[in-house]
Design a protein that fits this description.
- It is a single chain.
- The chain is mostly helical.
- It has two helices and two strands, in the order ββαα.
- It has one domain.
- It has helices at residues 44-52, 60-88, and strands at residues 2-5, 18-21.
- The chain has a two-stranded antiparallel sheet with strand order 1-2.
- It is globular and about 35 Å long.
């Protein structure tokens, strides 16, 4: 499963889109696996567990479709805001 959060509330990344994948996508060779992984700590851990257990998110094909739709809408909004600002300024 894969989950997109359009506007993060995470102070580290700021107010931007972030994605979360299941714990099964982590390679066994990762030096942070079971050794300080950021996603393995709260509050992100609660969300990560729900994505891993399938309570949140979508399968890969649905996630990709939704991500592109979200990107297209957000890009159109940015272009509209930039154009409106330019024309009014």
């Amino acid at each position: 499963m894969f989950h997109i959060t359009p506007k993060s509330k995470n102070a580290k990344v700021g107010k931007m889109a972030v994605t979360t994948s299941t714990a099964t996508t982590c390679p066994s060779a990762c030096p942070f696996k079971d050794n300080g992984c950021y996603a393995d700590g709260y509050p992100l851990k609660g969300h990560w567990i729900k994505v891993t257990e399938g309570e949140r998110g979508d399968d890969w094909p649905t996630f990709i479709r939704c991500s592109w739709v979200w990107y297209a809408i957000s890009s159109a909004c940015v272009v509209f805001i930039a154009l409106t600002t330019t024309l009014s300024g």
